[in-house]
Amino acid sequence: MPSGENSIGALLKHLALAWLLNKEGIDTVIPGGKRAAQIRESVRAVDVLLNEQDMKQIESILED
């Protein structure tokens, strides 16, 4: 598993954005970036598919 990836196979920065995009009531996420390449990289988060179990696991980590 490449550095920064998790069991889902996504980079943590993509996982964080995907989690936000899957939260009830959140329609838009505006990631920061100084360069166009950083924004293009952030957009890749839309390709991360999270199921209900993934969402619950992330939320349990955040509660600790």
Describe the structure.
- This protein is mostly helical and 64 residues long.
- The chain has one domain (12-63).
- The mean pLDDT is 87.
- The protein is globular.
- The chain has 3 helices and no strands.
- The chain has helices spanning 12-22, 36-43, 52-63.
Considering the chains and any ligands shown, give keywords for the structure.
64 residues, mainly alpha, 3 helices, 0% strand, globular, NADP_OxRdtase_dom
Total DSSP E strands: 0
Shape: globular
Calculate the terminal CA-CA distance, rounded to whole Å.
25 Å
Are there runs of 5+ residues with pLDDT below 50, and where? none
Pfam family, one: Aldo_ket_red
InterPro entries: NAD(P)_OxRdtase_dom_sf, NADP_OxRdtase_dom
Domain NADP-dependent oxidoreductase: 12-62
Protein name: NADP-dependent oxidoreductase domain-containing protein
Topology:
Layout: H1 12-22, H2 36-43, H3 52-63
Domain NADP-dependent oxidoreductase: 12-62
Protein name: NADP-dependent oxidoreductase domain-containing protein
Pfam family, one: Aldo_ket_red
TL;DR of this structure?
The chain has 64 residues and is mostly helical. The chain is built from 3 helices and no strands. The chain has helices at 12-22, 36-43, 52-63.
